[in-house]
Design brief:
By secondary structure, the protein is of the alpha+beta class. The protein has 7 helices and 9 strands. The longest helix is centred in the middle third of the chain and has 31 residues, at 146-176.
Length: 323
């Protein structure tokens, strides 16, 4: 840490430590103590800013960028130390049997082809595909294909290895926590969420499963009508509203339904469903308008009738406007 004007500066952590004593008198008021602390904090920030601007910078679109030096003060760790990974079944077995791991070369000499080949992978040593003839065994049944049996045995070995690997991942997640596994395989090993809440997902009840299955079955082009149903599967329930139509073929009650429908339309258009037979306000307004029209007409027919003449006003050369 650099010592400058009574301050210790650690640019790696952007930390400034004031070495001076507090020197605050008990007789000072709360406002005076706050003012003194703010002044010292301003001095510390000024020292840190001077140190930062003294570092050589590189131009960038967002502004100048500086490379901070390595921190000199070791701060305590925020998170706890990760737990060690639990040993796998093979590691426990090897430790019990005293088997030591030794590094072998990636190449091995192939006696059959007289060349160096990879120990594993493409064109490896003793590749099964390079064996054109397989000797029959006394225990083999007549009519069996040895090449097909060899392929089936290989598939079973691969499946067994994948199962063992998944068991090891589950054991590691159980004893070592989620941090013992990479984030890419946490979801495959456990049912716990990778991020977000620490609570395990709750179990889905029967009603929610049925609702999700109904949505999935009705998400096709035909709405699930022409999809093949499983044995014992019930018809999906219609969630939305059903639109009702009048029957096309004349049957019982169809005439009454059409009559009610027509009456509802007429009531909306003509306002026959109103409780008041006569609108008093509307009638008074119509009467007042008629009286005003008659008075205006009578005044216009009298002696004081004003004659309206058109006046011409010049607005330019050879241009007139009629008012």
């Amino acid at each position: 840490m650099d010592d400058q004007e009574g301050f210790l500066v650690d640019l790696g952590n952007l930390l400034v430590v004031d070495k001076r004593k507090a020197g605050l008198s008990p007789s000072l008021s709360k406002e005076e103590v706050t003012r003194e602390c703010l002044a010292r904090g301003e001095q510390a920030l000024q020292v840190l800013a001077e140190k930062l601007f003294s570092i050589p910078s590189t131009p960038d679109k967002a502004g100048p960028i500086v490379q901070l030096p390595a921190p000199t003060l070791q701060l305590p760790r925020e998170k706890p130390l990760p737990k060690p990974r639990p040993p796998t079944k093979w590691e426990i077995f090897a430790q019990r049997k005293g088997i030591k791991k030794r590094k072998r070369s990636k190449l091995e000499f192939d006696e059959q082809n007289q060349e160096w080949r990879r120990r594993y992978g493409y064109k490896r040593v003793r590749d099964e595909k390079d064996i054109p003839i397989i000797d029959a065994k006394p225990s083999d049944e007549i009519g069996t294909d040895p090449f097909a049996n060899r392929s089936a045995q290989k598939k079973s070995r691969v499946a067994k290895e994948a199962k063992n690997q998944l068991e090891n991942l589950k054991r590691a997640a159980k004893f070592g926590g989620k941090g013992a596994l990479p984030s890419t395989i946490q979801l495959a090993a456990t049912s716990l969420p990778i991020t977000g809440t620490k609570e395990t997902p709750r179990r889905i009840n029967k009603k929610e499963i049925g609702f999700a299955a109904g949505l999935a079955s009705s998400s096709t082009a035909s709405g699930g009508k022409f999809d093949r149903k499983l044995e014992g599967e019930k018809q999906a329930k219609h969630v939305g509203k059903h639109r009702k139509f009048l029957p096309v073929v004349e049957g019982s009650g169809i005439g009454h339904q059409e009559l009610q429908q027509s009456q509802r339309v007429l009531n909306k258009v003509l306002g026959a469903s109103s409780n008041d037979i006569l609108d008093i306000n509307k009638a008074v307004n119509v009467l007042n308008v008629q009286d005003e029209k008659r008075a205006h007409k009578a005044k216009g027919d009298g002696k004081g009738k004003r004659k309206w003449t058109s006046k011409k006003r010049s607005i330019g050369k050879n241009k007139f406007r009629t008012k």
